[in-house]
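User: Teach me something about this protein's shape.
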Amino acid sequence: MPMVWICDKVLHKICGRGSLPGTEFEMCVFRECDFTEADFSEFDFADCVFDRCRIVMTRLEKTGMRNVAFEGCEVRGVDFGLCRKFGFSVTFRECHLSFCSFHELKMPKIPFSGSALIECFFSECDLTRADFSGCDLERTLFDRCSLERSDFRTAVGYTIDPASNRMRGACFARDGLEGLLTQYGLEIKG
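Assistant: First, the predicted structure itself:
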């Protein structure tokens, strides 16, 4: 597909990649679109919003994502680690992410506010000061990540190994400390 630049447009209820009018998008809003199994390899998204979209098994190899917001989206089986690392910047609010992978991404201060991250995988990521407020982190794995000064106080369902992640200054609620001790086989009583 030849490079076509689209700027400042609202794209509503588009289904699949074939319906997209371009490959470079700036200041665009994608509203209630279904991008199941779409291939966005080598596309560029800058200052864009995905609002209540389905992004399922979507391919993102060498995709540029700079200041991209996902709001109320279903994101399943997506490997964000394949995106271009330079300039990568995303936010998630009230999203349902499952079986997603984040590898070697710099995401300091990223908000995942109110999102469910079910069986996601973070490896070698910089999540310094990340905001996991109100998140469900059931079976999500953090491996060799910087979680320093990240906020987990209102997150639930997490199991994080402090021995394999940098966690200085990370915030947890007292009743969530069990998720930091699970791998040690300890019983936490009342």
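Now, about its shape. The chain has one domain: 8-184. The first strand starts at residue 5 and ends at 7. If you'd like, I can walk through any region in more detail.
User: That's plenty for now, thanks!
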